[in-house]
Design brief:
The structure holds two protein chains of two kinds. Chain A is α/β, with parallel strands linked by helices. Helix content of chain A is 22%, strand content 31%. Chain A has four helices and seven strands. In chain B, helix 4 runs antiparallel to helix 5 and helix 4 runs antiparallel to helix 11. Chain B is an alpha+beta fold. Classes of the chains: A alpha/beta, B alpha+beta.
Chain lengths: 163, 404
């Protein structure tokens, strides 16, 4: 694949996503960053997975000021381009449709993002804890910026491990 | 129909790492599998945001004891993606060489464990014996058998000598012979065919749906390999030169997973030879300064599949978010597709077939004043007796040990 061919992939993504695409950027030939609204997010992920043949490598959640940013890294193996599908999930509801509902590969990573960042994935087939124990106190999301390093109000049995 | 539930774990009888399986059985046949992880969560992603850009490779190197170069490799590729730079050619070739040496010894380790799990201990002992040659070559190249610390943002951390490369060539030659012998074992041995064929079949559709990677998806006819799909460093030129190829088979059972790994060892040996023969001269490090605000993704094909790292920078000296995904995270859920319909005895094999990541150390070394020396077995026995005596003294117990 030459660089020109790789740059033409963003046109393909633009065409496939159509009106729901808010912004698209290709800073390097093998990296695309596409932004959609949170309401359109599962639909956009479905298009990238089914129509463009994307393989969900993983997803990243990232806390920004009044939202949690979700980035789903889809590898388009045939085109040799990594397509990062982004959305902002607004606080304090933090609700977004689940991609794991139709893509089994997103099942675990959405469970991890749900417990670590408090994002609710609506329609997720198996919304249990993944890495944290089942008795983990509600409303404690360890990867949030405001998560206290030495939380008060926990009894000794329930106190999260603090290093 | 009466159903039985069989819990296995979290201390797994076969695997060294804690995992918890719940098998829903009908007689001896597994109908459904549920698995829980998280007993080993160490919070690397959070820890990483408290370290500087150059300290992070040392932290992520310790995520895994076997594929120890994969994580720093993916991390430095992510930072280089953010910066929009490429390492100098010699740095690229050194990193790729270490990555391939690691693939050889990791696959040999798995091969030994697989032999052990099916009760074929000759394969276990022999493949680990041949793995030693590769580890010795790694030690010659980098100074360490594992945890090489050769990846650095912008290039390689240390140069490698011509003498070490010659030594590695010798190790590769002798390893090629033994790997060919293993290939013969898998091709001919009727016991292995009987035990492994048709067990734990992962169909092509399931491999795509679960987004499985590496030697878990490639035996199912899914040709995903990051080294080929998004060529980085020296992998692009080596592919163009035809130095190696991606191994893909069609059946998706445990037998194919083993064969793919053995064939990948042979391909890696070819690639290592090509890298050493074509090793360019010159700088090894691009000399990276400040990291500007931005984001980057890097991925490396580890022995077990794709390792992917995402980093976000706000222009300070630390990442504000660092996402790490190891291949086993996507390969583990494939159990849900592969285990049902098999007996409990087969489940043990299937769980091992994806090569879940282990950590191991194998040898003791003591630092004397000027050089490293090895401990003999007698010394080791003496030391452990002394340690036990010391503990007994502290606990106020009488010694029950035979005098040495």
């Amino acid at each position: 694949m030459t660089d020109e061919e790789k740059y033409s992939v963003s046109e393909k993504v633009k065409k496939a996503l159509g009106g729901i695409l808010q912004n698209i950027d290709q800073p390097r030939p093998n990296r695309i960053y596409a932004v959609v609204h949170q309401d359109d997010f599962p639909q956009a992920a479905k298009i990238v997975y089914e129509k463009l043949g994307g393989r969900l490598a993983t997803s990243t959640a990232l806390e920004v000021r009044d939202a949690v940013e979700l980035i789903y890294h889809f590898m388009l193996d045939a085109e040799q381009v990594l397509c990062n599908l982004k959305t902002l999930v607004a606080k304090p509801e933090l609700k977004v449709g689940s991609v794991g509902a139709f893509l089994p590969g997103a099942d675990w990573i959405e469970r991890e993002m749900a417990e670590m960042f408090g994002v609710t994935f609506e329609g997720h087939p198996d919304p249990r804890h993944l890495l944290l124990p089942d008795g983990w106190p509600e409303g404690n999301y360890p990867y949030r910026c405001d998560y206290p390093q030495n939380p008060e109000g926990f009894t000794d049995e329930k106190r999260p491990v603090v290093y | 129909m009466k159903k039985t539930t069989l819990p296995i774990g979290p201390f797994h009888p076969l695997l060294e790492e804690p995992e918890f399986f719940t098998l829903y059985l009908d007689g001896e046949i597994v109908k459904k599998v549920d698995l829980r992880i998280g007993y080993n969560h160490r919070g690397h992603e959070k820890l990483s945001t408290g370290l500087t850009w150059d300290q992070v490779p040392f932290l992520v190197e310790r995520i895994c004891g076997i594929c120890s170069t994969s994580h720093p490799y993916a991390y430095v590729l992510a930072v280089e993606d953010l910066l929009g730079i490429k390492a100098p050619p010699r740095g690229q070739y050194i990193r790729a060489l270490i990555g391939e040496m690691e693939r050889i010894h990791s696959h040999l380790l798995w091969l030994g464990l697989a032999g052990h799990f099916i009760g074929y201990n000759t394969v276990w002992m022999w493949s680990w014996r041949y793995r030693e040659e590769i580890l010795d070559a790694c030690e010659k190249l980098t100074g360490n058998r594992n945890h090489y610390a050769m990846c650095r943002v912008g290039g390689a951390r240390r140069d490698i000598t011509r003498e070490a490369m010659d030594f590695t060539m010798g190790a590769l030659d002798s390893n090629e012979k033994s790997t060919n012998m293993f290939l013969g074992v898998f091709a001919d041995d009727p016991v292995l065919h009987k035990r492994l064929k048709g067990v734990g079949v992962l169909t092509k559709e399931d491999a795509i749906a679960y987004c499985a990677t590496g030697p878990t998806s490639r035996p199912s006819g899914v040709p995903w390999d990051v080294r080929q799909d998004d060529p980085y460093d020296a992998y692009g030129p080596s592919l163009e030169a035809g130095a190696w190829k991606v191994i893909v088979t069609e059946n998706g059972d445990v037998f194919d997973k083993a064969v793919v790994r053995v064939l990948e060892i042979l391909e890696s040996i070819k690639l290592c030879r090509w890298l050493i023969e074509n090793m360019p001269d010159g700088e090894i490090d691009a000399g990276v300064g400040d990291i500007p605000p931005g984001e980057g993704v890097g991925h490396h094909e580890a022995p077990r599949g794709e390792v992917i790292h995402y980093i976000r920078s706000d222009g300070s000296n630390k990442p504000i978010r660092h996402k790490v995904r190891a291949p086993t995270f996507v390969n583990l859920p494939t159990y849900k597709a592969t285990c049902p319909g098999h007996t409990i005895a087969d489940v043990a094999l299937i769980t091992a077939s994806i090569d879940p990541c282990y950590c191991c150390t194998e040898r003791i070394g003591v630092v004397t004043r000027n050089r490293t020396s090895s401990v003999t077995q007698d010394d080791l026995v003496k030391l452990s007796v002394e340690k036990t005596r010391e503990m007994e003294k502290r606990m106020g117990r009488k010694s029950g040990l035979v005098k040495f």
